[in-house]
Design goal:
Blueprint lengths: L2 H12 L20 H15 L14 H14 L4 H9 L1
Helix pairs in contact: 1-3
Length: about 90
């Protein structure tokens, strides 16, 4: 499942955003996410994607696609787990 699909699932399930409103270019405030909701979303992202946000929440996350890019950046910085490392070596 892609980062976008996982994020869309979180928004639909946890924030009750209608599925047709979770397109990549949708502005977060349009779907009812204010700054407090985005902060809460960061905790959900840490749990779901097994990443750690060590800096302050960026203030430039305006769209769903911005959040996807943020998550992908966090994932790229994380050290590989033993299973992921083995999979990379096998490929």
């Amino acid at each position: 499942m892609s980062t976008l699909q996982s994020l869309q699932e979180i928004l639909i399930k946890d924030y009750r955003v209608p599925p047709e409103q979770v397109a990549p270019d949708v502005v977060l405030t349009t779907i009812g996410l204010d700054s407090l909701s985005v902060l809460e979303l960061m905790f959900k992202i840490e749990d779901h994607f097994h990443v750690k946000i060590v800096e302050d929440t960026p203030t430039n996350l305006l769209t769903i696609n911005d959040v996807v890019g943020f998550i992908d950046g966090l994932k790229a910085k994380q050290p590989a787990t033993p299973v992921e490392a083995q999979a990379r070596l096998s490929a």
